[in-house]
Amino acid sequence: MAFQVNSDLALADLRELATFGACGQGVERRMWTPADVQSRRWLQRKMAEAGLEAHIDAVGNVVGRTNHKRRVVIGSHTDTVPKGGWLDGALGVITGLAIARALQTQKPDLPIGVEVVSFADEEGYFAPFLGSKVAAGFITVKAALTTKNSLGETLAACIQGSELATQNAWRIDPSHHVAFLELHIEQGPVLDAHQIALGVVTHIVGIRQDRVTFVGSANHAGTTPMNMRADAAAALFDFATEWRRQCAAMGSPTAVWNVGHAILEPNAHNVVASRALGTCQYRDIEEETLQRCGLLLRESAEAAARRNQCSWSIERQLEIQPTPMSPGLVDICERACRTLGHSFRRMPSGAGHDAMIIGRVIPAGMLFVPSKGGISHSTDEDTPAESLARGMQALASAFEQVSRLQ
Fold first, then answer.
1. Are 383 and 370 within 8 A, CB to CB?
2. Mean pLDDT score, 187-210
3. Average pLDDT over all residues of the chain
4. What is the share, in percent, of the chain residues with pLDDT greater than 90?
5. pTM of the full predicted structure?
6. Where in the chain is the domain with CATH 3.30.70.360?
7. Could you give the C-alpha distances from 237 to 174, 214, 231, 264, 272, in angstroms and in order?
8. End-to-end CA distance of the chain, in Å?
């Protein structure tokens, strides 16, 4: 007999979790703010009530496990972006809790158990994927505690006095952890637009973020002839247009790029800008494409600076490698969709997830449910209850298949 996840109870948990940091129809729960701390205490209690051995580790990862020597890790994150949605990350954590409950009550004798986790700071208030990077062994607790939020506070200072975290870091151990599974909203429009029930994730994109700076010379915008200007703003606009054109000419069906943040100095309507900064982010599932985008960025910046009589520089701010999901788990997730009779689509994830970090240490697989209107990272984020329930049951089916293979 297959697991039957209690989706009604899980949806009630999701709605209760959304009360911590409620912001209109959404949630604002940055890492280690009061709302986040309260939600982590709540989650630890929920795990304990479900019969799990639960604790919060040195950086804020909330972990609850069944009493099995070998376990499938299931989870995501419960921190949010400012004015974020109620499902982003939270869905994966509560689904893990629901599967753990089903295992405890319906098939407690299975040789493979469940370890549910809410990773700390996936959204990067202190550092992106901080909790999963500590868990995977890519950064030390000591390094994590020195990271700072936008207010200049260190993680160590925020943790101090909270009486929340333990001294030890939870770590992924391949000798005990056989796989990682994550359910998430798509955060894009594809499934919703095509009325597809579930997405089977094949890859998670790599991400590069570079800050491009142009330096010119401030001068009166009314009296300085156009051909005698060293206009940093013009260089930035010129660069952004050319880089977009060059990236589009590559023809990659999965690459995306964006200049989403700009600063002009002195930022006055009647002054030629002396300095202009643009933050550029580009993503793809292929490392070669990311390298090509980066090369085009440098070439476009150099040409724009030359045309506008400015100097230029580039600073790398973020570099995350593309991560393929485990082919075996991709097949298992697809089989779960077929078994339950749901439509599905194999697809890459254009957003980063903890699975891309954990997937470098143990096999990882992901399923998507649709995002209503393709909206995420917004208080308007939503997914119908029936879609959430389908995703929960599909991930439970995938877990059962994994447990039978071990």
1. yes
2. 96
3. 95
4. 93
5. 0.90
6. 206-320
7. 48, 10, 10, 11, 13
8. 18
Does the domain spanning 206-320 belong to CATH 3.30.70.360? Answer: yes
> What pLDDT does residue 180 have?
98
Binned at pLDDT 50, 70 and 90, residue 161 comes out as confident
Residue 233 three-state SS: helix
Query: 32: which 2 tokens?
Result: 């280690």
CA distance 75 to 308: 50
Q: Please classify residue 279 by burial: count the beta carbons closer than 10 Å to its beta carbon, then call 0-12 exposed, 13-18 middle and 19+ buried.
A: middle
Distances (CA, A) of 250 to 24, 223, 253: 41, 41, 9
Which residue in the block uniquely carries the two structure tokens 């972990």? 63
Tokens of 113: 């158990």
Q: At 15, which helix (H) or strand (E)?
A: helix 7-17
Range(s) of the chain covered by CATH 3.40.630.10: 7-204+322-405
Query: Distance between CA 195 and CA 370 in Å, rounded?
Result: 8
Using DSSP's 3-state secondary structure scheme, residue 121 falls into coil
Q: 381 by DSSP, 3-state: which?
A: coil
Q: For residue 287, is it left (φ>0), alpha (ψ between -120 and 50) or beta?
A: alpha
Say which amino acid occupies 182: E
CATH of domain 7-204+322-405: 3.40.630.10
10, two tokens: 């899980």
Residue 46 and residue 57: Cα distance in Å, rounded? 16
